[in-house]
Queue: 2 jobs
Job 1
Amino acid sequence: MNPILEIKNLSIAFNQNEVIHNISYALNKNEILGIVGESGSGKSVSSLAILGLLPKKISKITNGSIIYRDENLTQLSSQPFQKIRGNKIAMIFQEPMSSLNPSMTCGKQVEEVLLQHTSLSKKQVKEETLSLFEKVKLPDPERVFKVYPHEISGGQKQRVMIAMAIACKPDVLIADEPTTALDVTVQNDIIKLLKALQVETKMSIIFITHDLALISEIADRVLVMYKGNIVEEGLVKNIFKSPKHSYTKALINSRPSLDTRLKVLPTIQDFLNDSISTEIVSKEQRKKNHDKLYNKAPLLEVLNVEKEYITKSGWFTKPQHFKAVNDVSFKLYEGETLGLVGESGCGKSTLGNAILQLDKATSGSILYNGIDITKLSKTETRRLRKDIQIIFQDPYSSLNPRIPVGEAIMEPMKVHKLYASDIERKEKVIDILKRVGLSEDYFNRYPHEFSGGQRQRIGIARTIALKPKLIVCDESVSALDISVQAQVLNLLNELKADFGFTYIFISHDLAVVKYMSDQLLVMNQGKIEELDDADIIYDSPKKEYTKKLIHAIPKGL
Amino acid sequence: MSHKSNSLKQLALQKFKKNFWGVFSFFFIVLIGFISIFAYVFAPDDSQYANQMHLAIHSKKPGYNVTMLTMPSKIKVKQNSFDKLFFGRKNTDTEIPISEYAIKDDVLVYKEYASDGLEGAEKTVELNIFPNNSPKDFIQEKTFLFGTDKYGRDLLSRVLVGARISFFIGFVAVLISLLIGIFMGSVSGYFGGKVDAVIMWIINVTWSIPTLLLVIAITLALGKGFWQVFIAVGLTMWVEVARVVRGQIISTKEMQYVTAARALGYNDFRIITKHILPNIMAPVIVISAANFAAAILIESGLSFLGIGAQPPMASWGAMIKDHYNYIILGKPYLAIIPGLCIMSLVMAFMLIGNALRDALDVKS
């Protein structure tokens, strides 16, 4: 079979710094090619190069060619490129929220593509747009045609984006992490849609993602990229069943499995050193541990907590209320990990913030060691902060860019007057840095000199500097690559064993939450859907919503 | 811990150093600052406010040359050297431009200088008023590099001394505007709600009054004089700073490191001063450079209108005011020289502002 798109010996450099090293691959007609890799592996850069969308000033294709239908795209000037871009080769981006123009109606934006690339009349364009909306299974296409992007949900926006991309019946569709920003259930729908569209139109799709399990559900063939190289290439089955490169093995295995619970998750380093531990936490061990945990009095008791927001308020209209957290009660025991899952907007982070007293709950009470912390004064709350801490989602924005990390970790100690002198504090900081796997050389460095995983470690170090009892992990590993995620999860578990922390682990990722937690709390629209032992919920979900959620997780092969 | 780390500040500094116009403007401003502080050292006429008048030789061209007779005054002024260095010599000597002179017996006969081909009056003075009876040291050739103004004062000296006002009004006005602006802006941005509404209301009201009118009103209330102008300009400029700070704080306080700081139990003062303000300094610095330039322009405008620095104090704006009608009389340099000074100083601040904006922009 003749490939429709062929990439030969492609190298790309950013400011003399080569990021893609001599890669070659081909895309056949009528196939879905998956490209997997972590952030910085060059998977997005190589696909942007196909469309000629690399930032011109700082990047350069230093070597190689991209051949589409006997035409070398690297040599093409911008005028003829526009005929190909969007018309023959189209792209779907990661963020549906920001890739649609907020000041144009959805219909207009799709029409624009058609007007640009086809010679249809205005009336035909509108008909075509509506049929496209039907094709991507948007509910009520007539309505979506007239509304602005903010009036539809994230999944629907991504459907509009797909409609836009397939408007000109492209030969090649590049989907760059099209579902990463979406909930699992929505992700599932979009994947199904893309597959159906591919079968119908017989176009070729390049599907880029960091999630191997996801790619196994959609792609025919997979490329694994690592640090600008293609390390492995082959059919999905072969890659999954018998991965050859140790990086691929690590990628497949670092993600917590849904069936067994490993004591320590394997990391890339383990695979490179061939030192994988396969110790499993057995059901009996878990049970024994739980019996011990639940015998004590609860550390935290959440009673009928509600959080209300005013969504609309005007001078003459009655304010409308929206309950982000609706009548939630649960108990948390010392030393346990409570998993909190739900899709975006279900109120899980709001609940976390209420426990942390960052956002006061509207009603209900939160008892910490028997004291209602919702009624504390400002200074008492500040003292309480020492006991209840948080680890944030985004390692890039959770550290002040102008304070060296050592000082950042030392500051909470100073504020809460822990330890006698600065010298003692500094020693402690170095201890903590070492504890989270960083060297003491890092004391005077600034956050921008670290990678995402390292920053998350620094964030954790700052959190544990206060020796808290309860830590809320709000999507703490969601922004991290899978291999780094495994390291951070291992670290969290080690710290828990060492210091006896209690975690509330908030995440949208059921697999991660299941691996971490003792109890699992499933939230939906502000309410508790189900609350039980994590294994029990996963094995025999009672509610329809939980079933749907578990079913939607990409399982891999 | 020997690792030398690059803070964002250092990175910005490195970037700034590469910008030619930025560095050039910086040194230009430093030079002007130095000159304005030591104005009386450099000025040919180091009398207080460079106010030595010679009406006979008023409004002469740059590079004008004349013989000058200094009549020592009998009044001895006591003045310490520090005062003399920074505020000029309190001078009671009279200077008389002369065209010719001769010593006859005990008297000095001289002919006063007169321009436009007129004959000056011949006068005599007894030699014993000069020390050692020798007037040699008191009769000298004098060159006016920038010419003389309409009172016959040395224009170069007045430009040098006038630099002080322009320079210091920049400093004082920007300082006042920063103090008020950052305080108001951070309080309103950080706390939001009713506090924000009240402060925004004050800001909007202050902003709706035309700047010049407000300064005039403040100077009228506080009295005329250059300190009043300093304060008045500062009081009008804080609104811009406050608005910028408020906007920046509103977006920065959503950053996770601010939430982290709250979760770690820091108090509001610490969060604002240690975690928010250092991160929003970039736009504040840029707007301060622009304010510096604007303050200089407002001051010269006020001096031009006659409510700025009062005579005999030298100020660039006032110098233009004194001489703008000479522009059509064929002596434009009297107004153009201080005009060019204002322009180059303002321009230097603008360029430095641009360079800082580029350097502090982390994105590129």
Job 2
Amino acid sequence: MFEKFFEWYEKRHDYARDWMAKTGGDVVGCFCSYAPEEIIYAAGLLPVRMLGSHEPQDVTEPHIFGMFCPFCRDVLAQGLKGRYDYMKGIMIAQSCLHIRQSFTSWKKHVPIDYAYYLYMPNKVQTEHARPYLKSEFEKFRKSLEEWRGKEITDQALRESAELHNENRRLLHAVYELRKGPNPAITGLEAMVMVASSFFVDKKDHNAELNRILPQLKDRQLGRETGARLMIVGSEDDDTDFVRMVESVGATIVVDEHCTGTRYFWNLTQYQNGDILQDLANRYIDRPPCPTKDWEERQRFPHILQLAKDYKADGVILIQQKFCDPHECDIPPLKEYLNANGFPTLFLEFDVTVPLGPMRIRVEAFLEMVGEEELF
Amino acid sequence: MAENKEFWRWTEYSWRDENKDWRGAAIITAGIDVGSVSSQAVIMADGELYAFNNTRTGSNSPDSANKAIEGALAGTGLTLENINFIVGTGYGRVNVPFAHKAVTEIACHARGANFMGGSEIRTILDMGGQDCKAIHCDEKGKVTNFKMNDKCAAGTGRGMEVMADLLEVPITEVGDLSFQVEEEPPPVSSTCVVFAKSEAMALLRDGWKKEKVLAAYCSAMAHRVSSLLDSVGVQEKFFITGGIAKNRGVVERLEKELGVKAVKTKIDSQIAGALGAALFAKTLFEKQQAKSVA
């Protein structure tokens, strides 16, 4: 039932090229889930978030430190290897230094026509962030208009905002079906479903979600649900890891990743008659990345609520090696979840993960959180 | 001659409780722990230790499992068919051909330590052949938290074997010899087996006695595992399983560093995993029986 999402996920470049041929439009690569896709889409462009390929590589060493996170190195490798050679533009909304290094290296070493750095504020917990981000969105809009030689109308922004909201509503509807005792989808399917929405025109993605939703309501997976796990961390599209976890007696029922719920969780609220302000508010109010989650840590109660709503038995905390913002959060987050009755397992990820050693840790964790069959 | 030079080689052996007769037991279970360096088979009669074998793991996990169980069965009159339930554990746990179920060595070591050291054990350090685990458990021996070493095999049994070979000291004498120093030397700076070996060679060249080098290595190993323990915290009572538990050079230095004494037992610390597996086998068999009756 999820074949289309898997196809999009695995053949993301084919999809982008076909989209260009079909629409005559161009593709803009985005480096972070804070990129305001609605504005890019309203300019007649396809925003595509760039993820890694989970293959060992040897092309980024001259450009990026070895102690920068594996994800940002993997992303840059895709550009240096020419995998996105069809892509005309790139943009980043500031989140962390590591991915910004990927952006600046890409700008310098990969042939493109357009690169934009958007000053997404890190201190989102101040009211000044709202007008500030709106003015940054205004600048970005003007910059895109100049590049494309075409106005981005408020009407186009509204339509784009609504298309993206619709995608978020549909993803929520699918996630809702993971709350029950027999989740309608696996964690692997959920991961690929959300990740593919980064690559695909939201019109296509929405159509596919609308097609499967009625069938999902009565879907029986025909497998034991086992322990219900939540997975929390930074960027994560490690499908091999999720497949392994779900093969040893567990189902991932919810996530808190920027390639998962953090990306789509909140909708744009139309409040001001000012669509750019509404969009800015949406990015200010979204579940924050740890780079933006201060002074108050607002992400923790959000994670706890998800764990409760989806009835998680335990939480896997994953960290991209050397991701400092997440690493700083993990000790207090672990303590917080444990104190609230959710056991945790911490695992460190690289471009590829050693599945054998990960498996023993996961199995031991499942024995720890699972039923008392051994006692 | 070559055999004599293998100073790392510990004795493979079998043990049997001569005072027990398995024929009177209602439930016979076994646990097989195929580790990265050693393999053990434990046979229990009605939840009591009856026989075991401790052997070196070969290149093939099923063969090692067979060798261990054959060693434990030898002389008992028991055959595999007499055993009601068998649990496999360890690195090769899914490759134990005759096991009914596989359970991780983390759960098994906690359960084994609970049996060996009593229900008051709360923290277990398993110092195995190629990895280390710090484990917390409850009064039943159920794991409540754990941490495994991530990056390399430093501070594990294999490293000690390499050092014994380099210094030409039989592995069983390392602990005692490491205390035959006038004052405690600083630990070797690296516990990476390869680097530590190079460092030890340099120290020997500088005229260090081998006792002093051993002290420096045992101390480095104790320091390394104490940082692993720190990451979960040490709650008393504390128990050490695995081969290194038999090395007082590491154990006593670790106790000093932690400020906590480990509970000691006469049972071979290397069989803790297999023992835990055999205990789980008993519970699993009883539950299976109860289910089939119902």
